């Protein structure tokens, strides 16, 4: 499926307290904070950590694959409460690539 062929259609009711929407540049700091909370590391720990996601790495994700990233947004507080971090790649079942996230993405 090529996501560029399909325009995002808002499918949620207007009164939902939490909505899932495509990620956006204005939320990268909150996306990083959400990832840190989920995986138990601090912003300071992210320095020098290949597997830790930072706002800069989320900016890179959005630049390379904007249609593949989503957030759960608390609409009352305009606060990110969930985030996806995804990667699409061709997979050869006969020779699966079992590298780390950093290896798979060329640095996160």
What can you tell me about this protein's structure?
The chain starts with 17 loop residues before the first strand and ends with a helix. Helix content is 29%, strand content 14%. The protein has one domain. The protein has 108 residues and is α+β, with helices and mostly antiparallel strands. A three-stranded antiparallel beta sheet has the order 1-2-3. It has helices at residues 28-39, 43-46, 55-64, 101-105; strands at 18-22, 70-74, 79-83.
Write the layout of secondary structure elements.
Blueprint: E1 18-22, H1 28-39, H2 43-46, H3 55-64, E2 70-74, E3 79-83, H4 101-105
Antiparallel strand pairs: 1-2, 2-3
Provide the descriptors you would attach to this structure in a database record:
29% helix; globular; alpha+beta; 14% strand; single chain; 4 helices; three-stranded antiparallel sheet; 108 residues
Care to count the β-strands?
A: 3
First-last Cα distance: 23 Å
Spatial strand arrangement across the major sheet: 1-2-3
Tertiary shape: globular
Low-confidence stretches: none
Instruction: Let me know the average pLDDT.
Output: 80
Number of helices: 4
